[in-house]
Amino acid sequence: MALKIRLARGGAKKRPFFSIVVAESRSPRDGRFIEKLGTYNPMLEKGHKERVVLKAERIQHWIKMGALPSDRVVLFLADAGMAERPKWRETPQKSMPRVERRALAQAKGTADAEAAAAEAGKPGEGGKPPVKESKPAAKEAKPAAEAPAGDAGKAEAKA
User: To pair with 54 at 20 to 30 A between CA atoms, which of 77, 89, 122, 142?
Assistant: First the structure.
């Protein structure tokens, strides 16, 4: 039985209110839960003290019991100082303003180019060794070798 600490939606239409609950992972979002651990009211301002209410001792108890918090609950816990803020939360590039997105792409492109150049210079450190160019001289050597033989044959014939 896998336990999750997640949000269960309540409230009226267009007036959301969430309970933070511990429930079995297979149970429905708003269905049966084991214990209510807090509330989240997104209609309140971000600085309001009752926007997120957590029962810290009970949350710690359930985490020790093996309950995994959802992504949103992890953010609430990080804001309360009970967990570490995840590093995966970045602004998606599609929602970034175009100017910032282009600047980021250019900065990333120059950094990638510099890294690739540094990696190419050091073949022993995980990079591929530089590719040796095939010498086209081998193709030219045959006609060059045949031409003098032919000329030499003509020269011998005249002599």
Answer: 89
- Answer for the pair 63, 80: CB distance below 8 angstroms, yes or no: no
The CATH classification of domain 3-79, taken from the options 3.50.50.60, 3.30.360.10, 3.40.50.410, 3.30.1320.10: 3.30.1320.10
- Splitting the chain (159 residues) into consecutive groups of 10 residues, what average pLDDT does each group show? 92 95 93 94 93 94 94 92 79 77 82 67 53 56 53 53
Structure token digits, residue 64: 């020790």
**Torsion, Cα of 11, 15, 18, 23 (10° steps):** 60
Q: What is the C-alpha separation between 140 and 48, in angstroms, rounded?
A: 82
Predicted model pTM: 0.56
